[in-house]
Amino acid sequence: MDEEHSQLLVDLESISLVDTDEFTIFSQDDLPVGGFQVMEDIRRKGKLCDVTLKVEDQCFTAHRIVLAAVIPYFNAMFTHDMAESKQMEITMQGIDPSALESLINFAYSGKVKVDQSNVQSLLVGASFLQLAKVREACSDFLKDRLYPHNVLGIRAFADTLGCWSLVEECNRYLQKHFAEVCVSDEFLSLPLQDVREIISRDELNVQSEETVFEAVMSWVKRDLAERGEHLPELLTKVRMPLLTPQYLTDRVATENLIRSSHECRDLLDEAKDYHLMPERRPLLQSFRTRPRCCNDIVGLIYAVGGLTKSGDSLSTVEVYDPIVGRWQMAESMSMLRSRVGVVVMKKKLYAIGGYDGIDRLATVEVFDPTSKCWSKVCPMNCKRSAVGAAVLNDHLYVCGGYDGVTSLNTVECYDSEANKWSMVTSMTKHRSAAGVVAFDGHVYAIGGHDGLSIFDSVERYDPTTCQWTPVTPMLSKRCRLGAATLDGRLYVCGGYDGSTFLRTVEVYDPITSKWSFIGAMNVTRSRVALVANMGRLYAIGGYDGANNLSTVEVYSPEQDQWEFITSMCAHEGGVGVGVIPLP
Length: 583
Fold this sequence. Notes:
Blueprint: H1 3-13, H2 31-44, E1 51-55, E2 58-62, H3 64-70, H4 72-78, E3 89-91, H5 97-109, H6 119-129, H7 132-143, H8 151-161, H9 164-176, H10 178-181, H11 185-188, H12 192-199, H13 210-222, H14 224-227, H15 231-235, H16 245-252, H17 256-259, H18 262-276, E4 299-304, E5 317-321, E6 326-329, E7 341-345, E8 348-352, E9 364-368, E10 373-377, E11 388-392, E12 395-399, E13 411-415, E14 420-424, E15 435-439, E16 442-446, E17 458-462, E18 467-471, E19 482-486, E20 489-493, E21 505-509, E22 514-518, E23 529-533, E24 536-543, E25 548-556, E26 561-565, E27 576-581
Parallel strand pairs: 1-3
Antiparallel strand pairs: 1-2, 4-5, 4-27, 5-6, 7-8, 8-9, 9-10, 11-12, 12-13, 13-14, 15-16, 16-17, 17-18, 19-20, 20-21, 21-22, 23-24, 24-25, 25-26
Helix pairs in contact: 3-4, 5-6, 6-7, 7-9, 8-9
């Protein structure tokens, strides 16, 4: 020790401090980061390295302590009595050299570049080395790059590595985009068991069961000699009773592969019986009669027109995004409309008829979410407020309503291609403020009133026969009710029975042809709008007997329970509602 340092120690010994329990802790937060940077610089100079990892014909030097500290695979190798714990050179198998180099660098820097050229090898390497965060980053990279032509390949790849979150995301994408996936080479090259499993899913997003039938036929015909014998088995997974009678007759029954198979013809006969003998439907109850429902389709909920607190009609439109849970203003209609009919057809929002504060309206306008503009289309033949509307087979049906003098039983059908309305068969009852929905291949008209009586009755229109027939009546009389369909069942909520404003909810099962009560809403709601979105029911606005309502409730079928969500910001009840699915 030199003289200067000896003098410093003498000086320190002469310092007198008060005896106390107080202390302080100094912390240098950037020390670990800086230390790892220095260690990486040392490694790149080839100094102090105590292990070499060899993959194929490439070698990478590193420090055991760094690898063990960051990479679980090496931690287990170096801290246990394995032969490799003492070897200077370790030969690695089952990992790509470039991936290993990137992951060694990650151990020092905490950073790794993921791109389309290396994501697969990195995911394999991260899985091998048990680097959970890198593995998750690679999975997220692939989740953002799923397309109809690659989703099945990525799903198979993720399954072999046990990346279950990526497998689940692939399944959700596959279900949501089945119509595009099923025409891809990946789908047509799948083995039988995979095709069978996919087409069995309830969650497939298809406009019609025709998509599933055509997917099966395309898969079989890709290699008819090898796959032809599997057609009967696959057709048992196609929900043929849900195909239209016309399609069954014109397409399915004329297919040679089906005509030549006894098992296939039996399935075709079952589907025909379902349509020809509705009274026997309870005997045909199976998954083949259950509509598919993809709850991953996110829709924006548009609340259109309606009333102010003082009862004035509105042109206002607001939209609810269920992902962010917020209402915001959208483009207003060109006219004031309360008691307006609202539907979505071909991803466009239609506002039909209504009341502007002076007159009942025959006018119709349509909102295009792409251009964010409203435009008028051909007006109806009749003025209608308190009107019910539904879309079936790309045609828009309006039923009943009130023309300012009387409740109506007339029904009109709009063809968007021809921009033309035509009158179809009238309902058996005059119905104003009824619930109208498309369900089970028919248009249902539910409840309502004729100016004198409020109905519990239900009737439905068959577009193939152009006839209205009665259906099992509801358990309660209801007008100004909400009606919607979800998972193959028909729901009605709220309304007015002539003496009481209602909060009760009923569900109709077409298999049993019976109505039953389910969990009631939290508040009474007349003039309520009911829509389905993402596997839930939304009861929006209404009137509780004293006030117009801006509140919204959501129903969970699994829990049989309603809960409040964010209230509308610009409406006070009486709105028309439609759901436009996001692209």
